[in-house]
Amino acid sequence: MLLIAAISTAPVAAYADCANPIYKKNHPYECRTTSKAVIGAGLALAGAAAIGGAAMSLGASGGAGSGGATPQPTMNTYDYVGGDVSASHIASVISDTEYSRNHAQYDSIRLAYSLARGITGKNSTIAILDADSWHGASVAAIAAGPIAPDAVIEKYYIAGANNKFISYGEIGNIISAAAHADIINASWNTEMRANAVRTRAQLAGLTDQNFINSLADAARGGTIFVWAAGNEGAAESGALSALPRVIPEMQGHFINVVAWDDNTGALADYSNACGVTMEYCITAPGTNIATEDRTVSGTSFAAPVVSAAVAVLREAFPYMTAPQITHLLFTTARDLGAPGVDAVYGHGMLDLERATRPVGAELVPLASGGTAPLNTTRVSGAIGRKLKNSDLKLAFIDDYGRAFETTLSDHVKIKNHGRGYEHLRPGITSAHAGIIEFGFRRSDFLAAEGLLGTDERNIISFIAINSEFDTGKAKISFRPEIGAARPRGRTDSMITKFSGIYTASIATKVQHGDWTIGLAIPDIILAGDMDMRLPVGRSANGGLLFQDAKTSLTGRAAVEYSLSYKFVTAAFVDNPIGTDEFFILAKHKLAF
Q1: Which of 96, 454, 459, 513 has the fewest CB atoms within 10 Å, counting from its CB?
Q2: How far is CA 466 from CA 463, 476, 529, in A?
Q3: What is the pLDDT of residue 161?
Q4: Which residue has the higher pLDDT, 188 or 487?
């Protein structure tokens, strides 16, 4: 049934007419008490379309903005991460004029972090279904504000300049025309409560079948609806907030929004609570939001804050589906009120810091299939020194499959060669032909684990010359060696292959009596490369992207200085690719 309601077109007087029930309903913040109104050109709005005799309402307050100094924001550090963003970058974001105009509200949703991360709503369209009046202009201005400044805003009028609503059937046609948009913002609702809506047929009878069908069709096409809960201060949201309860196609495509009051640190006293919509309801600032020409309050103005946040996530993660985006917003909301999802705040406060950083386990996709944990990887110095000095990037994914970029060097820890241990267990198999020695030996000079894991048995085939001569007072030995190795990456490694690795080692000793002085340069890499296949992100359709990287392993080797007395040796290793080593070992054969 449609009701036609008269509207007032007179401008608001210098003082609020809160005795007028129509003005009081649509200016909830100003009329909490009998107080001086904010000067402006707001109109008293009443609906022309109705559900069960309850007027459909835009429900809001409007007025001119006020000047004065804005205090420096203090960022909310609840579960603080944000370590990818420098303090100076955050400072530059919050000092912007557009941000500082509503700093308290933007601090509540931790907007500075998504802006500092460079996410501005590009490639998203927000359709505003509203009145051709200050109300619609204010909603559009908030949607176009600093949360998602690069989103495209389209205006569709469901009420004229006289604020008279068109019919539900006609609104259905407008929704069909706007269905190409990624987000549809509806800052209007009804006085009938959401818990009174029982079935789809009931709702179609109270509104219009074309209205219901257009909503379902737009949702099937991927559109996300963001709806204002209403301003009656009731325990239940307006009836239109119940759409997903009776239209299954809208589940995962609908966000109900209640309004937060930063002044009281609680749900605004004019805002309806989530009630039965709590599973798809979120809280956002809606009180005293300043636009260029007025300051407004109402769930009408909390809704475009959430619409802009959806645009932020769509830009950052274009491969996410609508249900994934809405679920992400709910999961990352900061809990308010009773623990968990509750009938007042729903999932809690919208949080753009949480929503734009990883959620859950951080896993690295592998070209061979599967994933590996993004852990600090311990690698030998021969590999580690090159990776530490590189600027190689890789992507990891979170519980939502979203790709995030990190620098490989931040996850590499150099593993010492362990020369003392190698002396105790040389692992050489060789044969001699005069002074020529050839054979195989085990070494960990290319050992690595985790994302860069290599085969544990790095075998070097070598040929060496063992020469020594006696000066009469001392015995001098000299051993040059040339070797070759072909290590392999494990199946759970980003390493795809090594080229032939060619090494050289030089060792010399001077023995006088029971004392021996030694100098050695082990495992100099003369030539050799390591090939990796690094994940670098996702394409717009969600496919994983990989990039090949080749790293040369040549470079300066460690130098070992040793002093031995009989079978006890003390040595110092000057290691340019790890930490220096000092060790003492005793090595002696016992016969029985």
Answers
A1: 513
A2: 10, 11, 29
A3: 79
A4: 188
Q: Are 291 and 179 within 8 A, CB to CB?
A: no
Longest dimension (CA), the chain: 121
- What's the rounded Cα separation, in Å, for the pair 505 and 552? 19
> Among residues 281, 322, 323, which one has the least CA distance to residue 303?
281
**Tens digit of each residue's pLDDT (9 = 90 or more) over 30-48:** 555 432 222 222 222 333 3
pLDDT of residue 21: 53
Under 8 Å between Cβ of 316 and 119: yes
| Per-residue confidence (pLDDT) for residue 376, from 0 to 100 | 83
DSSP calls for 336-351: -SSSSSBTTTBT-B--
**Torsion angle, alpha carbons of 454, 455, 457, 459, to 10:** -70
Classify 110 in phi/psi space as left (phi over 0), alpha (psi -120 to 50) or beta: left
Tokens of 472: 């009469």
CB of 572 within 8 A of CB of 518?
Answer: no
- The burial of 547, by beta-carbon neighbours within 10 Å (0-12 exposed, 13-18 middle, 19 or more buried), is given as middle
What is the spatial distance between Cα 289 and Cα 298, in angstroms, rounded to a whole number?
A: 9
Q: Which amino acid is at 241?
A: S
The structure tokens listed for 507 are 């060792």
Long-range CB pairs of 204-207, under 8 A, 24+ apart, other chains included: 206/1, 206/51, 206/52, 206/239, 207/49, 207/51, 207/168
CB atoms within 10 A of CB 338: 10
Better-scored residue on pLDDT, 32 or 448: 448
Give how far Cα 1 sits from Cα of 55, 106, 238, Å: 11, 41, 17
Name 60's Cβ contacts closer than 8 Å, sequence gap at least 6.
26, 27, 42, 45, 135, 138, 187, 231, 296, 297, 298, 300, 301
Q: What amino acid is encoded at 79 in this protein?
A: D
Q: Which of 3-12, 140-149, 275-284, 575-584 has the lowest mean pLDDT?
A: 3-12
Q: What is the distance between the alpha carbons of residues 344 and 349, in angstroms, rounded to a whole number?
A: 11
CA torsion through residues 218, 223, 224, 229, sign = negative
In the DSSP assignment, the letter for residue 85 is S
**Torsion-angle region of 115 (φ positive above 0: left; ψ -120 to 50: alpha; else: beta):** alpha
Residues 6 or more apart whose Cβ sits within 8 Å of residue 77: none
In the prediction, which pLDDT does 312 show? Answer: 97
What is the secondary structure of 376-434 as a DSSP string?
-EEEEHHHHHHHHT---EEEEE-TT--EEEEEGGGGEEEEP--HHHHHH---EEEEEET
